[in-house]
Amino acid sequence: MKKTVLILCAALSLGACSLFPPPYKVPVSQGNQITKDQLSQLQIGMSESQVTYLLGNPMLRDTFKPNEWHYLYTSLYTAPDAKKSDVDDLVLIFNNGVLTEIKNN
């Protein structure tokens, strides 16, 4: 009798957890939000300071490739209507302080 009551209580307790709504997850956005307008203004031949003025500081500057700037954007648990970046991964390559290559992944 005790085992039956214990099993019944355990089953009801575990089943009650599914009645609650899922926990709130805080939306997390990290990186540089780059718009299509900013991307259209980006041109080969711009200096590093012009690119920094236009896009801001890069999210990542590689230690072994200091002339390669990475602009990254990620978002977790955001609402579908939340403002997002038009570009998730942008790589800019400089040569002697001048933008020579744009890679938009």
UniProtKB/TrEMBL annotation:
Gene3D superfamilies: 3.30.1450.10. InterPro entries: BamE (IPR026592), BamE-like (IPR037873), BamE_dom (IPR007450). It holds the Pfam family BamE. Keywords: Cell outer membrane, Lipoprotein, Membrane, Palmitate, Signal. Residues 31-100 form the Outer membrane protein assembly factor BamE domain. Residues 1-18 form the signal peptide. It is found in: Cell outer membrane. It is a lipid-anchor. Its main location: membrane. Belongs to the BamE family. Part of the outer membrane protein assembly complex, which is involved in assembly and insertion of beta-barrel proteins into the outer membrane. Part of the Bam complex. This is Outer membrane protein assembly factor BamE. It comes from Marinomonas pontica.
